[in-house]
Write a structure and sequence with these properties.
Layout (H helix, E strand, L loop, with lengths): L2 H8 L19 E6 L9 H16 L3 E5 L10 E6 L16 E8 L2 E8 L2 H17 L2 H5 L5 E3 L5 E7 L3 H8 L4 H11 L4 E6 L30 E2 L4 H20 L3 E6 L18 E2 L6 H15 L3 E7 L11 H13 L5 E5 L5 H8 L5 E4 L33 H5 L18 E6 L12 H10 L7 E5 L34 H12 L6 H7 L2 H11 L1 H8 L51 H10 L8 H19 L8 H33 L2 H25 L23 H13 L10 H11 L9 E2 L12 E7 L5 E8 L7 E4 L1 E3 L2 E6 L1 H4 L5 E10 L2 E5 L12 E3 L3
Parallel strand pairs: 1-2, 1-3, 3-5, 7-8, 7-16, 8-10, 10-12, 12-13, 13-14, 14-15, 15-16
Antiparallel strand pairs: 4-5, 4-6, 9-11, 17-18, 18-22, 19-20, 19-23, 21-22, 23-24, 23-25
Length: 873
């Protein structure tokens, strides 16, 4: 149907004096939505709600509308949108998979219109909300007169957003805001998230020095359980009852929009340590070791019965929950509360410290079970699963006792990745969780990397992802400051609700988690400025690259690269928070979060001096990536002048500054490493220059954010979890001063090896690998050898195959490949393929001692999976 047909059949006229190109005069017809009450999908309450949302969007355009049970009940001049379940409408079909949708032009009787099909209720909700979104962000006629059918299906089974309650003063206002919740949940549904998780009790990792205990041990904040005299001290009964009413309201509003509602109960401990009651207003009375488990069971059952819209519960089952790891009987009792609810409720267990015994406790309930490991530790790395984890997380035969007996002992590798959970014979779902360490405050939004993340979350049959939303942990551990969750000092930048700052972030994440091949119009229609999209996209890649290549701490309570606390290059004795890193604890000795593919600074400096290279990505290559992204973001940002993009412009400029800071500091550390290993003065002089460049970039960030963000942005109680970029400058200056002092004893040097190393540290490295041809095996058979072959156009001095089970508790195996006529072969032994795990592998190819690369490695946009995975037949 073209525009002329649309005008004819709806009576819409374009006014000559319209406000602008494509603007509509008052229409003379209607757009009517038809939902057949006999269709079990179209008549479902969430679909009816979505149809009303579409009518609201039409009303915003001044277009009258209505909702009807059949097309023949509408007027002849109406433009009809037929909403239907999966039954075919002539040649229009919808994929036979959950949550799929089709939107297509169609003739309804003698009239043109639009057909929206859903494979199920949620798919049809998404279809109607997509039409509403087009109407809101497009000229009305073009929004409805589509000529190309749209068919989409989800790439990830679970696409979840988690919102944290961690601060009495910062989070009570939004928790109790009945006007906010419908708008927020409508936004999530419109962007095709299918699960919302409300996380309680995550304000503390342990119950020490507690100063803000609201919802910390959650059950008494909602209900009084018969048979137990358990209460939160100083909590009025009326407030407790109101909390339950709000939980019912939030969960029901979630389900009304077709989403699943997940309740996160992250704390089951109840005894505070070193926490004066005068400061801790909500200590728990009435619990003892004898009734603790039974109370939690009965309270959980009562809560699930009171809130039937809760479809799943997330449990932190490791020691930070206040319950010792290995307490299987305790959790068996608690999980029985899920069973006693009398309905199907998913049990989602956070994976840190988990073992088969704990998984079996969950499976024994007969309920659906998911295990949810962290993605890239407590941060967000590049859009793939790290090829390996840091040595600090490998058990190496360690043992531990007490609360953290498993996650600090034999199961330490479960802390920061998928661990050993991706067996092909698992009987549980696996959900990856993005923790809020890398980025908490600044805007994020890159469609290309979002699509790559989307593909990564289906890794080896995984179920999808849960994202801790922006501003997660804001005000955590008693650091909350009321009235300004976004952290803006400039009142003109504050949105009404904090999440409105991140509308574009939610759009990019949600649409591309659903469909990584989504039409670019789905995000561009909202931003409408290519330069803004390009600037934010480039800036958004910077922090995940920093996290991947440089990991001084896996803990988000320590490492916050967005507002980085400086780690010294020179003196390990200088005070800094990075305790879970290798000694000596200096910048150059820090492990990457993926040490299999990236080299640490001092390791690379030694390679430069020796004139040798591994295939790993070097700190200088990473520096160049960061600098290039910063330059691209800055260049595009010069074209973004409209005042409505001011928030974006500020945050992009900060991230570009971070890219330049870390790029220059990485170069400085490499140069300092060359100096340390050779004594060369020139290397030290260049290290100081680069460090000053880094310092200048940080000073520009501090100046840019002064008066924009408040002087004390609080994520936690420690100095490195709060403050402002200005606060970080003294430590940087102090480290530069220490480096400057080394000049007094530095020798002249000038050896050829040192000069060549300095040149490379200051250069613009560009890999030029030879063309390779490799066809990955479709599958492998257990106990049978697996041959692997690669063809390379250049003559090599060595070719190596690195392979490992998809099990982060194990180390990589290496096989020297034998070559003939440009073809190199190796075999993975049958004894190694006798495993329940998929295999991951990649190649290191060396053309000369100082020229090596990885295959497949990273492509130009750094978003591909840099290794191959083959699964068991």
């Amino acid at each position: 149907m073209d525009r002329r047909d649309f005008l004819k059949h709806t009576g819409v006229a374009i006014g000559a004096a319209a406000a602008g190109p494509g603007a509509l005069a008052q229409p003379r017809g209607r757009v009517s939505v038809v939902t057949d009450p006999r269709d079990p999908v179209a008549s479902a309450p969430p679909v009816r709600w979505a149809a009303q949302e579409l009518q609201r969007a039409l009303a915003e355009h001044g277009m009258a509308g209505g909702q009807f049970d059949a097309a023949d009940l509408t007027a002849e001049t109406d433009f009809c949108i037929l909403a239907s379940g999966p039954k075919p409408a002539r040649t229009i079909t919808v994929p036979d998979t959950p949550e799929a949708l089709t939107i297509a032009p169609a003739w309804l009787s003698d009239r043109s219109g639009l057909t929206v099909l859903g494979s199920d209720v949620r798919g049809l909700v998404y279809g109607l909300l997509e039409v509403a979104d087009r109407v809101r962000h497009s000229e009305l006629i073009s929004a409805l007169t589509t000529t190309k059918p749209t068919t989409e299906r989800p790439a990830n089974t679970v696409r979840s957003i988690s919102r944290m309650f961690v601060s009495d003063v910062e989070d009570k206002p939004w928790y109790n805001d009945r006007e906010m919740w419908p708008a927020y949940l409508t936004m999530l549904a419109s962007q095709r998230f299918n699960r919302f998780s409300l996380a309680l009790g995550i304000g503390y990792d342990f119950l020490r020095e507690v100063t803000d205990a609201y919802f910390l041990f959650s059950y008494p904040f909602f209900l009084s359980v018969p048979g137990y005299n358990v209460r939160a001290v100083n909590l009025p009964d009326a407030e407790r009852d109101h909390n339950l009413e709000m939980l019912k309201f939030i969960s029901e509003q979630t389900v009304a929009r077709g989403l699943e509602f997940q309740l996160g109960i992250w704390m089951h401990g109840y005894q505070w340590a070193n926490s004066p009651s005068v400061k801790t207003n909500y200590t728990i009375e009435g619990l003892t070791a004898d009734n603790h488990a039974n109370y939690c069971r009965d309270a959980l059952a009562a809560l699930l019965k009171a809130c039937p819209a809760i479809s799943g519960v997330t449990f932190r089952i490791h020691g930070e929950s206040g319950v010792a790891e290995g307490s299987y009987e305790f959790w068996k009792t608690v999980f029985d509360g899920v069973v006693r609810s009398g309905r199907k409720v998913e049990i989602d267990m956070h994976a840190k410290g988990i073992d088969q015994g704990m998984i079996d406790v969950g499976l024994a309930t007969g309920m659906p079970v998911k295990v949810s490991p962290k993605f890239w530790a407590e941060h967000m790395g590049m859009p793939y699963h790290q090829a390996d984890i840091r040595d600090q997380e490998i058990p190496h035969g360690r043992t531990a006792t007490g609360l953290m007996a498993l996650s600090s002992g034999s199961r330490s590798f479960t802390r920061y990745g998928y661990a050993d959970l991706l067996r092909e014979d698992r009987r549980f779902g696996l959900l990856h969780r993005i923790w809020p360490g890398t980025q908490r405050l600044l805007l994020w939004g890159d469609p290309v990397t979002a699509a790559a993340y989307s593909r990564a979350f289906g890794f080896c049959g995984s179920s999808g992802v849960e994202i801790f939303e922006p501003l997660s942990f804001k005000g955590r551990r008693g650091s909350g400051i009321g009235g300004n969750r976004c952290g803006y000092a400039d009142a003109t930048l504050k949105p009404r609700w904090d999440w409105e700052k991140y509308l574009y972030s939610y759009r990019v994440w949600g649409r591309l988690l659903y469909n990584p091949q989504a039409d670019p119009d789905t995000w561009r229609r909202a931003l409408r400025l290519p330069a803004a999209e390009a600037a934010l996209a480039s800036a958004s890649r910077i922090l995940p690259i920093i996290t991947t290549a440089h990991g001084p701490s896996a803990a988000n309570n320590t490492y916050w690269p967005e507002m980085y606390t400086n780690q010294p290059i020179v003196d390990p004795r200088k005070n800094n928070p990075y305790t879970d890193t290798a000694s000596p604890k200096v910048f150059g000795n820090v492990s990457p979060f993926d040490p299999q593919l990236f080299s640490r600074v001092n390791e690379f400096a030694a390679e430069l001096i020796k004139g040798e290279r591994s295939g790993k990505y070097s700190p200088v290559e990473v520096a160049q990536w960061l600098e290039d992204l910063a330059d691209t973001a800055t260049r595009q940002l010069k074209q973004v002048e409209a005042p409505e993009f001011r928030r974006l412009a500020i945050d992009v400029s900060v991230q570009a500054g971070l890219g330049r800071f870390f790029g220059a500091k990485l170069r400085s550390a490499v140069l300092y490493g060359i100096h340390e290993q050779t004594g060369d003065r020139a290397a030290l002089e260049e290290a100081i220059k680069q460090y000053r460049r880094a310092r200048d970039s940080w000073a520009q960030i501090a100046d840019r954010t002064k008066g924009v963000y408040v002087p004390d942005i609080t994520i936690g109680e420690h100095p490195w979890l709060r403050g402002h970029w200005l606060d970080r400058l003294p430590a940087i200056d102090d480290d530069i001063a220490d480096m400057q002092k080394r000049l007094e004893s530095a020798k002249a040097g000038g050896e050829p090896a040192a000069r060549a190393a300095i040149a490379e540290a200051l250069g613009r490295p560009r890999r030029a690998p030879a063309a390779c041809r490799h066809t990955p095996p479709v599958q492998f058979h257990a106990s049978q050898p697996l041959g692997v072959e690669i063809a390379v156009e250049r003559k090599l001095v060595s070719a190596r195959l690195y392979y490992r089970h998809v099990n982060q508790a194990e180390r990589y195996q290496m096989a020297e490949m034998q070559g003939t006529g440009g073809r190199y072969r190796a075999t993975i032994p049958g004894a190694y393929t006798d495993s329940p795990y998929p295999l991951v592998y990649y190649f290191e190819l060396k053309e000369a001692p100082d020229k090596a690369w990885l295959y497949p490695g990273f492509g130009p946009d750094l978003t591909n999976q840099p290794y191959f995975v083959v699964r068991r037949a």
